[in-house]
Fold:
Amino acid sequence: MIRFARLVGSLAIFVFLSLATSAHALEEEVVLGLSQDRVAITADFDGSEILIFGAVKRETPIPEGPPLQVIVAVSGPSSPVTVRRKEKKLGIWVNTDSVIVDSAPSFYAIATSAPFQEVITDTEDLRYRVSIARAIRSVGAAMNIANAQEFADAVVRIREDEGLYSLRENTVAVDQQTLFRSAIDMPSDLTEGHYTARIFLTRSGQVVSSFETDIDVRKVGLERFLYSMSREQPFLYGLMSLAIAIVAGWGASAAFRLLRQ
Amino acid sequence: MQVYLPIAEVSVNAFLLLGLGGIVGILSGMFGVGGGFLMTPLLFFIGIPPVVAVATEANQIVASSFSGVLAHFRRRTVDIKMGVVLQVGGLIGAGLGVVVFNYLKSLGQVDLLVTLCYVVFLGIVGTLMFIESLNAIFKSKRAGSGPAPRRQRGWVHALPFKMRFRTSGLYISVIPPIMVGVAVGILAAIMGVGGGFIMVPAMIYILGMPTKVVVGTSLFQIILVTAFTTMLHATTNYTVDIVLAVLLLVGGVIGAQIGTRIGVYLKAEQLRILLALMVMLVCAKLGLDLLLMPDELYSLGAAGGH
Structure:
């Protein structure tokens, strides 16, 4: 009987705790602002900085315990990538093995308010796919190739070198556990598409709230016109390129003949 | 000033491109070559994707060759009939070249093919030119002028389908010019070059054409072949970047005019030795890249061959 009471007691505590946690999850919510929700790639596009700022909305006092941490992750459109490895064959370095990584974002930048390991636990990272390595999916890697993981690592390494992937710790400023802000640098070599900005609020490594919004990256003006024309009217585009070349060639020759006289 | 290239999808400095165009233009004006064999590798070095570099360079060569051929038309140093025969071969070759190019692109071996072509052809042409111009310098030092060499009458004259080329003063079979055209067309498509550096020696040594009509005729045939290559790349690969082409050709045409003036002050043999050294230098750089272990063994490409 006593044992039964004890069981009921611990069950009650368990229920209370889980209620508390779920209430806790609803307790804090992200209200987000972006300096811009679209990036226009113009002819003189030279990269862009997006300011991401927001506040934590809550009806109750700030919970006790470890402070609130914030993660901001901006990712570009994902697409499959062929990764090729060079090997020495007959004295020269040639591409041999290749692996198709199912999906890798064209751009991925993470900013955190503290070192990454402290901000989020590994299980939560697995669940929300936050870290760079988790953002890349290579499930269907060919079985005939050993070390398929090295190919996925290569994607990360190469794109980190190109400035397309970045993890910048301690770059989200959090004030009074309520206001936060960060700036994400978008490099000049952006590809267009729908980018998403995700914001995670965490406490002791657990995600308590998350928010997602779109950033539209598009070529505009002349860039848009030339790009769509090259895809939709390739024949006309080719003729236009040739016409420009011929006019320029003739123009240069005529201009220099005038100068000489 | 940074410029975002709409097709290459990279941002590059506009003055860097104008400068590159200008330097290559000066060299091409000095040496009378198209400069494609220098420009395309330079575009690789500054980070333009090779497929875009090759296709765009073909478009730029149309402009510089057109600019050049006008001067030759005024001097009547273009053998139009020979040019047309070479063009027939050139179009067949360019078609074949783009097919090979696209096939290897799907295998992921296109960079290797382009680099190998460069190493082999630049190596051969550079070395031959170097030896020949050294000989010429020694000869001119030793004595005045020897007897003019007699035109060769070899296997070229034994072939059927003879045709008269009045401007060149030749009566030869159409097979060798067509074959030369095919070979240069393939190279134009794969390497993104006009092929003048192969065409000019082939016209002189294989076809036996007089030197004064060689450059004009070569330019004339290069226009159509590179225009055709541009169209093929534009419609099958969508890789012609018109913004890149315009920036390069503005620098290029101005540079070419300056180069022509500089060329006047140098002796022909000295020019050829300099050109040979430059060709061998580019060849050595590309060759080393193949032989030495690269810093990064892995490379990324879009899946699905696009």
About this structure: The longest strand of chain A covers residues 92-105.
